[in-house]
Amino acid sequence: MSDDAINLSQKLSTFTERWSPKIVSQFNDCDVMVVKAEGEFNWHRHEDTDDFFLVLRGTLRIELRDRDVILQPGELFVVPRGVEHRPVAEQEVHLLLIEPKGVSNTGNAATAAKKVSI
C-alpha cells in the first residue's frame, strides 16, 4: 500500500460497478474499501465479524429485521456480527467499508464480489 495520502473521491472515480468493494488501503488485518451502491443488496449476515459502513455521499438505508437505520454523509453504523441486514440505496451512494481481510461482502464466499485493490 502507498505511503501517500489516499484521495477517496479520486479512487471512487476510477470505477462504475455497484456493490463491488475496492481495497484502497489496509489497517492492521483489515481491508479499507470504497464501494458504490445503488438498489437493494441481498439479505445476509456475517457470523464472525461486525459490518462497518461510513457514508461518504448519498443516503443509505440499512434494513434490519426489526428496524431501519438511515445514514447520511458523514454518518456510520456498525452492524453487529450475526445480525441479518440488507443495505439499500435509492440513488447512488458512496461508502467506506472496513472489514477483516478475507471476509466476503455477502457473508458467503460463493456469492461474494471479488475484492480488488485500486
Give an account of the 3D structure.
- The protein has 118 residues and is mainly beta.
- It is built from one helix and eight strands; from the N terminus they run H-E-E-E-E-E-E-E-E.
- 4% of the residues lie in helices and 47% in strands.
- Strands 1, 2, 3, 4, 5, 6, 7 and 8 form an eight-stranded mixed sheet that branches.
- It is globular and about 40 Å long.
- The mean pLDDT is 91.
Our estimate of the beta-strand percent is over 45%
Structural class by sheet pairing and helices: mainly beta
Largest sheet: 8 strands, mixed
The percentage helix is: under 10%
Low-confidence stretches: none
**Overall body shape:** globular
What is the end-to-end distance?
Answer: 10 Å
Residue-averaged pLDDT, rounded?
A: 91
Give the SSE map.
Elements: H1 8-12, E1 22-27, E2 30-40, E3 51-57, E4 60-64, E5 68-71, E6 76-79, E7 85-100, E8 116-117
Parallel strand pairs: 1-8
Antiparallel strand pairs: 1-2, 2-7, 3-6, 3-7, 4-5, 4-7
